Amino acid sequence: MTDTTLAILQKYAGEGAPRYTSYPPATRFSDTVTGNTLRGWLGDVAPGEVISLYVHVPFCAQQCWYCGCNQKLARHYGPVAGYVETLLLEIDRTLGLLPDGVRFGHLHFGGGTPTVLTPDDMIRVMDALTRRVPAARGAEIAIEIDPRTLAPEMIPVLGKLGFTRVSLGVQEFDPAVQAAINRIQPLAMIEETVAALRGAGVADINFDLMYGLPHQRADSLRQTVLASAAMGPSRIALFGYAHVPWFAKSQRMIQDEALPSPHARAEQALVARRALVDAGYVAIGIDHFALPDDDLAKAFADGSMRRNFQGYTTDTSDTLIGLGASSISRTRHGYAQNHAAAHVWDKAVKTGEVPVARGLVFAGDDTRRGRIIEDLLCQGRASQEDLTDAGALLAPLEADGLLQRRDGAIELTETGTMLARLVARSFDAYQAGASQQQATVL
Predict the structure, then answer these.
(1) Model pTM greater than 0.90?
(2) SS (H, E, C) 337-401
(3) Which of 188, 207, 340, 428 has the fewest beta carbons closer than 10 A?
(4) % residues pLDDT > 90 (the chain)
(5) How many Å separate Cα 119 from the centre of its chain?
(6) CA of 255: how far to CAs of 8, 213, 244, in Å?
(7) Distance of CA 205 to the CA centre of its chain
(8) In sequence order, what DSSP letters do the residues of 318-338 get, joined into one string?
């Protein structure tokens, strides 16, 4: 990439667009979708279908100031233990609505920090899940981990339970940046955690890195990338920090003046991307990188890669069932999201409800637009026949070199790939009412 690329990235650094892990975006959800709606949708799942499962654990043992996730600090285990009991009840009731023979091909634990559970409770949750929905052959079982609070006794349990992939929150190794985000984890800690997980039989390891953090510099981020690549994680996600202190209260601990400028953010993103590619990783979509022999790199190459609430994935299932507070389910009919507040979700489950708070029924051309947006973010191209209502919006992006027209399609350039959400926004029919919910494209 050239200095021209950096100039283009800097030009659009302040622009916003939804993350497009769903379309329509979650900002369009409403309370017209209820637990009874999802109950009916699950009844339409085909017997023997391979589905996906997501389990949300909204607790952390330590607070990170940059975090904008639905999570709460667990100062003792009591609230977590209570949450597990309600989660077990939800698993039994909600998955009990499925027809016989359904299996899962992907299971993902997110949070929060799912490994805040004790090993015994993790075993109980896994037993409840697989009793209702067994794993399909070759299923991926993944979990997000905070290496600072990962109990040593949990590591062999993850191996014995069949977890195939873990995602470590690394973010940045610079001590000044770690102090500024309240996440102290030396390089040696990550190296030891990776070695222990591999020793327990967890073969695939992901790293999450971030740019745009307080006091972060392009050269320190490049050193973090190099140190991370040396450990050989299968995948590395490179996310831009979104500073929304009015929404994420913990971010109020981060001083605005410590944050890099939009121009500095763009430089950090470009430097990190170059370093990852030079280290042998395949650039996948807007923010993911994978070793060439990883399944995600293969899915990207053959066109089967998809995008869902966990980001880029090899998961091609049409049915995703979310369990736990705030989790989102997706079916062929639409989206259904559980109550975000754990106490409201808890009460709903205990009173026998499917604990859905809101959602969206697919209507009109939602499916068509969703396909275009997913094609752009996953494969970097869209059919020319889909451009009839977006041509005027695409023209200035084309003039800046973000896309080109070829063989009856538009194709993103390398620079355009980094700004793919901005191009995708041109096909979003809901943008007029959602601008306040957008995240920066870099």
Answers:
(1) yes
(2) EECCCHHHHHHHHHCCCCCEEEEEECCCCHHHHHHHHHHHHHHCEEEHHHCCCCHHHHHHHHHCC
(3) 188
(4) 86
(5) 24
(6) 27, 11, 12
(7) 15
(8) S-EEEESTT-EEE-SSEEEEE
Distance in angstroms (rounded) separating the CA atoms of residues 312 and 305? 7
Contacts of 381 (CB under 8 A, 6+ apart): 375, 409, 410, 411, 412
Residues 70, 325 contacting (CB under 8 angstroms):
yes
Domain extents for the chain? 1-22+364-431, 23-320
- Span 250-271, pLDDT tens digits: 999 999 999 999 999 999 999 9
- Residue type at position 348: A
Strands in 165-171's sheet, in edge-to-edge order, are 282-284, 288-290, 235-240, 204-211, 165-171, 135-145, 103-111, 50-57, 320-323, 328-330, 334-338, 356-361
What are 379's two structure tokens?
């494969």
CB 149 within 8 A of CB 62: yes
Per-residue CA distances from 72 to 77, 78, 223, 317 (Å):
12, 13, 31, 31
CA distance 321 to 93: 12
The answer to whether 65 and 122 are in contact (CB under 8 A) is: no
| 23, 83, 358 from 334: Cα distances, Å | 10, 27, 11
DSSP string, 12-45: HTT-EE---SSSS-GGG-BTTS-HHHHHHHHHTS
Contacts of 325 (CB under 8 A, 6+ apart): 56, 58, 70, 83, 338, 339, 340, 341, 342, 345, 346
User: In this structure, what token pair is assigned to residue 247?
Assistant: 């929404």
Which class is 1-22+364-431 in CATH?
mainly alpha
Rounded Cα–Cα distance for residues 279 and 361 (Å): 43
Domain 23-320 in CATH: superfamily? tm_1862 like domain (3.80.30.20)
